[in-house]
# Entry
Amino acid sequence: MHLRIMISIKECLKIMHSGATFSLKIVTYDKRRKDRCGRVLEFDEAQLMWGDGGSDRVKMKGQREPTALERSLMAKVVNNSRSPEHAWHYTRNIRLLSSGLATEAIVKIHPPLIIEFNGQITTP
# Structure
């Protein structure tokens, strides 16, 4: 019998807010589009993004050319001038990494929809 250690969402957020690199599986959900049986997305390497990402983008320039996926994700983020209100909506932005290097890909997640964090199953 194989036992897996479980981790709470609160502990996940604590690790994320420490600035550590993490992996996660998350379920998508869209109330407006009635997407009630969401897809499972898996991110092997990610870090929590703080602020609007402006200072991060300056550091990122010159590392490498963005991929097609990164360009499409950047197009969605660049023209968004309103405040994301993460506290109100209980969301977080994460930056995806590739082989330990930051990419331009930024994904908004809802922590309660995390089903696995660093290989551990999450609990409420």
Observations:
- DSSP finds four helices and seven strands in the chain.
- The helical segments are 9-17, 54-60, 68-78, 86-89.
- Residues 52-62 have pLDDT under 50 and may be disordered.
